[in-house]
Amino acid sequence: MHHPKAIIVGAGIAGLSLACLLEQKGFNVDILEKDAYPTGASIRNFGMIWPIGQPEGEAYNLAMRSRELWIDIAYRAHIPLLQTGSLHLAYHLPEWELLQEVVGIFQEQGRQVELLQTQDILQTYPMVQTEHLCGGMRSHEECIVNPREAITGLIDYLNEKPLVHFHWNTPVCWVEPGKVYTRNSLFAADVIFLATGADMHQLFPQLVSSQPLIKCKLQMLSLKDGLSDERLGIPVCGGLSLLHYRSFQAASSWNRLKNFLEQKKPEYMQHGIHVMVAQMPSGNYIVGDSHEYGNHMDPFERMDVNILILEELYRMLLPARRWQITETWHGIYLKMTNDSFYWQEEIMPGTFVYNGLGGAGMTLSFGLAEKLIQSIC
Fold first, then answer.
1. Same structural domain, 370 and 317
2. pLDDT at residue 187 greater than cutoff 90
3. What domain count does the chain have?
4. Residues 226, 324 contacting (CB under 8 angstroms)
């Protein structure tokens, strides 16, 4: 039986989602990864599949399709996936006004969201700090995976497929139509996908510099509670997240909230901080994050930024002050600077770029991969 051949450069979530779907279509797939294991943004995130953050239209539809594909593949790959939903908290009146407005908008769009009063939150989520809490919004569409375990699980799943072959420690030197050159080998295929994430400039620097792209560096932390195995039950975020995610711009009160938070929390706005916390299936908490934009990022993490993140966390969750920091890190991803939310382009015959997903890689990768494959197969 003839199997068409595909090469994927990059073994992050973008590349792995392509590999999963190509294998299902009967492709013989070679995955070339420059490192011994994925070490980029795909393992340095919250592990959130987050439709609530995507604006109505293509982005939201792709996020919901990704969610369907994640649930299916996680089951088959034995990856723990929690269908948790999400909880947005409002501690200031402008935040609460926006949530009340946007819930109506989201419900008209068919999203599964609802307003929660303070007493409802206290009864259902006792770890939430209710002092000064105005209320919240719960969405039922979000899911959580441990990003490190999920990437490992997808690799293990694909390793069991006879048509999929990983090539670790295999940096790509050059690409031309139908061919990929490494230091020691030549790979040939019918179709080539470049899913290299923030390292895309190493292959095609002039192409990358011509695109509306910018790098984003984020800082995150992992914490654990050594005194209790209590479950938070749902990913939690606060008012700053209402400014970060484009879906909330549908509310006419969005600009009022932006002006309010610029006055109330200028240091958070300066560092692009919005604070979220997600409890992994294993029990630890991932907390973040900040956003620094530029074309050249230093390798250092700023302790003052981490302190700001933690102080906001303490205002949201009662037991958080006793949690112990176990790890800190930063990640870097490529983000579009125009109105698009991804970069898919055929840059030469049969060679496609799949990049620029910003901070929504876990949320969008499977849906976008399916769209790209359907457009060429």
1. no
2. yes
3. 2
4. yes
Spatial CA neighbour of 245 closest among 115, 67, 81, 98: 98
Give the pLDDT band (50/70/90) at residue 62: very high
The arithmetic mean of pLDDT across residues 308-318, rounded, is: 97
Judge if 111 and 235 occupy the same domain: yes
At 226 the pLDDT is: 87
Q: Is the CA virtual torsion 101, 102, 108, 112 positive or negative? A: negative
% pLDDT > 90, the chain: 94
Question: 1 pLDDT band (50/70/90 cuts)?
Answer: low
Mean predicted confidence (pLDDT) in 59-80: 98
The answer on 161 and 20 residing in a single domain is yes
> 358 and 330, same structural domain?
no
Contact partners, residue 355, CB within 8 Å, separation at least 6? 14, 194, 195, 196, 197, 200, 213, 334, 342, 343
Residues 123 and 166 in one domain: no
- The parent domain of residue 13 ranges over 5-46+148-211+340-376
Residues near 106 by beta carbon (within 8 Å), at least 6 away in sequence: 113, 139, 247
* Inside any domain, residue 78: no
229 and 277 belong to one structural domain: yes
